[in-house]
Amino acid sequence: MKTQNLLLTALLISAFAFLPSCSKDDDNPTPVVTVPTSPAATSANLTFDFTHNFDGANVSSANFNQFDFITLNDDTLNLTKLRYLISDIRLFKSNGDSVLIDGYQLVDVTNNTGLTYSPTDDIPTGSYTGISFTFGFDSLDNTGNYADLNSTSWNWPAMIGGGYHFMQMEGKYKDMGSEIGYAYHMGTASPSSGVFEQNYFRADLGAINITGDATIEIKMNIAEWYKNPYTWDLNAMHSMLMPNYTAQKSMYQNGHSVFSLGTVVQ
Amino acid sequence: MKKFISYFLILGFITLNYSCAKKEGCTDPASLNYDAEAEVNDGSCIYPKEGCTDPTSLNYDPNAQIDNGTCIYSNSSGAPTPYELEIPVLFAQNILPPVIPSDNPMTYQGVALGRKLFFDRILSGDGTQSCASCHNPQLAFAENSAFSIGIDGIQGTLSAMPLFNMAWNWDNKFFWDGRAAGIEEQALGPVVNPIEMHNTWQNAINSLQNHPDYPQLFNSAFETSVIDSSLVVKAIAQFERTLISSNSKFDKFLRGEVSLSPAEANGFNIFMDESRGDCFHCHGNANNPLWTDNAFHNNGLDATFTDNGLGDVTGNPNDNGKFKSPSLRNLAYTAPYMHDGRFATLEEVINHYSEGLVNSPTIDPLMKTVSAGGVNLSPSDKADLKAFLLSLSDDDFINNPDFQAP
To answer: Which UniProt keywords apply (chain A) (predicted)?
Structure first.
């Protein structure tokens, strides 16, 4: 009987010991500080505004369909669709702790929806050494089933890793007088049949000081998708990019410099 | 010796084929049509139907054999009885809830009135056509000609759209060109369109108001016997929101009830493969049971447009040549295809995407390799893709007794 009790106690202890490993961001070693559920005087609510530019020139659905943009590779292009998924905004403290805002947002520039993200979680005010978000879904979030994303046909085919698109950027580019469609779609990468490689990345936006409720601008420089570090040649890669491993990993590399912190109003 | 090897190979082939030929049928002993000899369940099982068996109730089901205690009766106060749309399991699991406008809540009396109006020729100018004249339940509420012919014998220019799962159109833009903001608005058009039912609303309302039954039916549904066009289309919209299709073979496959044939399974892979069919970007996937994005695309049909489609509605030339992606459900019943019914068969549709794409300024970037005419599928891939597409057809939907003329 005593042995049984000891066994039971050991099992209970090990069960609790393993609980923290169930955290959905277990690929990130930073300890997570629980977000308080009720706002206190020292807490702030954050709103994120997503804005878009092409090397500084503002981009919105109003200037879609116009061949206004030239890539580093000298490809002249327009946009007809741009939507992308971000998730798990995180703020880092100097002591290594971080605050996670658990959730996701589909930013749809084409339809002017999702351009403002207002998570309900409040965060402690203070000075943060960094703010970041996940571009797309991390490996665990990408196994979830989300009715709103399914309803907008955002899914990524199972044969190349499943889950969801991270981005759909579409339009046309000019090639010797003709207009050729491109579909720059990003999601899980597949180096070979039945083998999948995670392709999400953490976009780091730098330090931020939160003194109260704040509206934070997150800027996407679309030109960066085509230039840094990989100079993108649309003639070489313009469509059928989802199963194209080289294309997916080039998007992954170029994506790291796409986002930056804009104005912060608080 | 060579001859002997040939015979041996042929014999082996025949034996292999023989051993693979398993009898298909219903393998569930709990069904009404259990086939003890069947080894492969082909999805044909028929079960005793549960439902309300009381003819005096609002939801009497004449096909139900087992009363499951769900009978609903009229409210003694005379107020209409709320109607809860039954959400199919794959819809509930995967997509957002349906759109029910707050100013048109569904009621049993409203749905019943809408059904009667939908099938009644009283709404047309000369009493010869009803909504169902061009939206035949047996054809998934479409029709089998490219263009409808109105009461004056004049042909329209756009194909009658099939009607199902309309409550899940969250953008609320209806018709091929998105001209109608909501089902109610869509239903307003045909009654007074001079090449369709060619009536006036005043005349239609007079006919209904002077009818022996309709004033009372409107009173039951809307608590007023003063009929107007708004109430007519509200009732029709309520009925149309009940038109749910969710029991195709592919639905059964997703629910784990049946297996796909090798051709259907390969066809689904072609559908989902960006390098081959790439159909999923506009027509959904296994997580979206609608099989449409309900959005508007130029799918490479023409170099110039006789009908600008969405462009005429938005006034934006960048939308010229764009038409709504129709659902791929029930394709077995909805030929001919495309907004103008130009393709008589599914083979023609698949050939269009494979080799027949035509470039134009607004062609969707997803219509890739347009310079080569399309994705150039092999003949066997085309056949398998068609097999998958037909697995989306829902025999139970077209035969649902609730969706036939009352």
So the answer is: Signal
Look up residue B155 and give its amino acid.
Q
- Min CA distance, A213 vs chain B (Å)? 31
Residues 6+ apart with CB under 8 A from A187: A136, A156, A160, A161, A163, A164, A165, A166, A199, A242, A248
* ipTM at complex level: 0.87
The alpha carbons of chain A give a radius of gyration, in whole angstroms, of 21
Is residue B369 a contact partner of residue B375, using CB atoms and an 8 Å limit?
Answer: yes
CB B384 within 8 A of CB B354: no
**Chain Cα centroid distance, residue A36:** 24
Rounded Cα distance between B299 and B354, Å, is 12
Alpha helices in B227-378 (DSSP H): 229-241, 249-254, 262-272, 280-283, 310-314, 346-355
The one-character DSSP state at A65 is: T
Among B95, B284, B318, beta carbon nearest to A65: B318
Phi, psi of A4, rounded to the nearest 5 degrees: -65, -45
pLDDT band with cut points at 50, 70 and 90 for residue B19:
very low
Task: Name the maximum alpha-carbon separation found in chain A.
Answer: 86
DSSP state at residue A164: B
Tokens of A80: 């007809």
How many CB atoms are closer than 10 A to CB A33?
15
Rounded to whole angstroms, what are the CA distances from B121 to A257, B130, B145, B213, B266?
A: 64, 4, 20, 15, 45
Torsion of CA B218, B222, B225, B230, to 10 degrees: -80
Pairing of strands B40-41, B173-174: unpaired
Amino acid residing at B261: S
CA distance A76 to A72: 10
Reading the block at residue B177, the tokens are 């060109």
Q: Give me the residue from A65, A178, A243 closest to B274, CB to CB.
A: A243
From A73's Cα to the closest Cα of chain B, the distance in A is 20
Quick one: which of B30, B29, B11, B27 has its CA closest to B19? B11
Q: Cβ of B179: how many Cβ atoms within 10 Å?
A: 15
Contact A240, A264 (CB under 8 A): no
User: Minimal CA–CA distance to B113: which of B220, B199, B248, B38?
Assistant: B220
With an 8 Å Cβ cutoff, is A81 touching chain B?
Answer: yes
* Model confidence pLDDT, tens digit, residues A71-130: 999 999 999 999 999 999 999 999 989 999 999 999 999 999 999 999 999 999 999 999
- Name the residue ranges covered by the structural domains of chain A: 43-265
- Rounded CA gap, B370 and B376, in Å? 10
* Sequence-ordered strand ranges (E) for B157-212: 173-174, 180-181
Q: Angle at which helices B201-209 and B229-241 pack, to 10 degrees?
A: 80
Residue A23 has pLDDT above 80, yes or no: no
Catalytically active residues of B are: 196
How many whole angstroms separate alpha carbon A163 and alpha carbon A239?
Answer: 20
CB nearest A157 (choices: B272, B293, B369): B272
Distance CA A79, CA A174 (A): 12
Q: Residue B24: beta bridge partners?
A: B40
